[in-house]
Amino acid sequence: MKKDQTTPDRRSVLRIGAYLGAVATAGLLMTEGTDAVGRGTAAPAVGASGAPAGGGPAPAGGPQAAQGPPVRASSYRLRPMTEYSPAPLRRVLPPVRTQPFLRLPDTDRAMVLTFDDGPDPRYTPGILRTLRQYDVQALFFVCGEMADDNRDLLREMADDGHVVGNHSWSHPLIPRLPPSRIRDELGRTSEVVDEVLGEAPLWYRAPFGAWNKHSFEIGAELGMEPLAWTVDTLDWTEPGTRTIVRRVLDGAGPGVVVLSHDAGGDRSQSVAALRRYLPRLLDDGYQITVPRR
User: Has 116 been annotated as catalytic?
Assistant: First the structure.
């Protein structure tokens, strides 16, 4: 018999001893696990393979871990497995522009109708009714203080498929403001839209079309692209319904962005003009659309 071989009796004794040791160890681990859960320590989530969720090592336990710096809790671990859903994708920020977009690129007889300064309960509903009648969508650049006071109209815009953009909070002249005020004007408006619609605006327009370096930078930080216009109806001067209609039809063309208003004064001419020029644009083969990102 070789020195590394054992007798049958000795092998039996070693197997029995190993078995008893394994049983005792398993019992100890089960007791420690039960005590840890009872003390309120969350058990690490595991994946299908049995490894800790996320692929990282399991957290250290015991007195030394308890005495160390607090570990930042994971929202994944705090959420029951049955209610787990993937985190939403983070919005990719646009580049900082040096000038706004003036028209849609590479379009085939597509136009965008935009309305600024609202929503206003006196005029916005009439514009929404006309757009709904012809089943077309528009882009509304809302002022935060108006949106905050007329949240039902904001929801109606979104329910009809319109795009809601940011037109600042109180319609100031942006270049006269310090960066902190610009951030407040744009940020507060985005917060209201996000709170009401569940998504912050992706487009913004400077009041009076007055942009500056800070507005481009802050707009990009808030995830928005700047959009100006191609055709200005000058409806805020109240030139008459017929004049507004003529300006839109004369300026119509592929990629054109039309500027009108649904608030900020008497906009009854703007409401009436839309009822007249919209069916004519459609009859001429134009597709009324909204910018996408």
Answer: yes
Candidates 117, 171, 261, 262; catalytic one: 261
**DSSP H stretches of helix in the chain:** 8-38, 63-67, 75-78, 124-133, 144-149, 151-159, 179-197, 213-221, 241-251, 268-283
Residue 287's pLDDT band (cuts 50, 70, 90): very high
Catalytic site includes residue 261: yes
DSSP 8-state symbol, 205: -
Catalytic residue from among 116, 120, 235, 262 = 116
- The pair of structure tokens assigned to 80 is 């029951």
Which DSSP helix (H) or strand (E) runs through 115?
strand 110-116
- Angle value at C-alpha 188, between 147 and 265, nearest 5 degrees: 40
Question: 110 in helix, strand or coil?
Answer: strand
What confidence tens digit (pLDDT) does each residue in 200-246 have?
999 999 999 999 999 999 999 999 999 999 999 999 999 999 999 99
Model-level pTM?
Answer: 0.70
